[in-house]
Design goal:
This protein is of the alpha+beta class. 52% of the residues lie in helices and 11% in strands. The protein has 19 helices and 9 strands. The longest helix is centred in the C-terminal third of the chain and has 20 residues.
């Protein structure tokens, strides 16, 4: 499910309509907004003409009351339908740091699958809780969804504002940290320093994915990389492992997954956590993982049985594309270490991890039949070139 998709505004509007209506009419919850990576993607579409492409639809809701798990599950179940499938496994607290040793529960989150579009709703207790959300200023852009207005209507009003700045002035966009300007100029800044120190590896995964896949940066600038590297060095063990692994699996599906893993390795993310990944990156050298994943993608497209095995492998990031790359990685690390990697993956996706484990003998045979790039015959040179070479 977790793939980048081109989505017209009317499609998002049709997904949002029943969610907004149920929250308002059944639960009295009206303060709904588009946030996360979905907000700047929508603004780019409206104000620069870029295609509206996103992996998921990120929604944020301020409840103005204490949010507990039973309420969140009731909301998810009440909207469960073939066109909006509730994923109960992914109901979990939104832990944020307020500078204390232990992260604080700022609210709860849930997921639906809207025919291949992941709808991610985070419900925060109040405004104070919401202020803790968003690692970088680009993560704190909100597009409020007025009660009774469709996204189509809200988008039309933003277009009439002529610019994002004017839309902010008119209250159509909430951008307290200047995130959209940083998004446009590809220069995000960290604002949630407490979260960086509370969950350094998870924060690094999220920042690397945003910078590489959304802002198309080839590397992190020092203002981002240096504090992340220092935080990992000081507290690599901190943070929720389930959420960390889940985000790693989502990374494996990214178009730039190999580069993102190399960026994380440069930050020290794999010194203590899944060191097999870091060791392989060191062994292959810069760009080696890119070639490895590209070969895995090519071979996987030809394997119909492998595709069938992973058709229903995961509800979120863990699908066939993730599997192909993880399998390629596992084939290139010592066999005795493979179970260690898969045991860590199983923390978030046990079914997926077991499927990968069961497929490894098959994948090894397939790889053995496919010559590696170094063993492939070099293309023959023209006769003239061969003659020159003998002089």
């Amino acid at each position: 499910m977790h793939k980048m998709k081109s989505l017209p505004v009317r499609r998002l509007s049709s997904i949002l309509a029943p969610i907004s209506r149920a929250l308002r009419e059944t639960y009295g919850l009206t303060r709904l907004a588009i946030g996360g990576g979905s907000a700047p993607a929508l603004l780019d579409h409206l104000f620069t003409g870029h295609a509206l492409r996103m992996r998921d639809l990120d929604l944020l809701l301020i409840a103005d009351r204490e949010v507990e798990e039973p309420l969140v599950r009731r909301i998810g179940e009440s909207l469960d339908a073939p066109e909006l499938r509730f994923l109960p496994r992914y109901v979990y607290p939104r832990l944020r740091s307020r500078g204390e040793a232990e992260p604080w529960n700022a609210g709860w989150g849930l997921l639906w699958d809207a025919n291949g579009v992941e709808v991610d709703l985070s419900i925060f207790h109040d405004d104070e809780a919401l202020e803790l959300n968003g690692l970088m200023n680009i993560d704190r852009i909100l597009i409020p969804l007025e009660s009774g207005s469709s996204l189509n209507e809200i988008a039309a009003r933003m277009l009439s504002a002529a610019s994002a700045d004017q839309a902010v002035e008119e209250g159509l966009i909430d951008d307290p940290c200047g995130g959209y300007a940083s998004w446009v100029h590809r220069s995000p800044v960290i604002v949630a320093w407490n979260d960086i120190h509370a969950s350094p590896i998870l924060s690094s995964i999220r920042i690397v994915r945003a910078c590489a896949s959304k802002l198309h940066l080839a590397h992190l600038h020092a203002e981002l990389a240096d504090p992340l590297r220092a935080a990992i060095l000081q507290g690599h063990e901190r943070g929720d492992r389930f959420v960390r692994v889940r985000n790693l699996l989502k990374l494996f599906h990214d178009d730039r997954a190999a580069s993102e893993l190399e960026m994380l390795h440069a930050l020290g993310a794999f010194i203590h956590w899944i060191p097999e990944i870091g060791n392989l990156i060191e062994k292959l050298g810069h760009g080696g993982l890119v070639s490895l994943f590209a070969q895995a993608d090519r071979e996987g497209r030809k394997d119909a049985d492998h595709h069938a095995a992973f058709a229903l492998a995961g509800e979120q990031g863990a699908d066939e594309a993730s599997a192909l790359r993880l399998e390629a990685l596992l084939l290139n690390i010592p066999a005795l270490k493979r179970d260690d990697v898969l045991d860590e993956i199983a923390i978030a996706e046990p079914t997926f991890a077991n499927l990968v484990r069961s497929q490894m003998p098959r994948v090894a045979k397939r790889r053995a039949k496919s010559p590696s790039p170094s063993r492939r015959a070099a293309p023959k040179r023209p006769a003239a070139a061969r003659a020159i070479g003998t002089v």
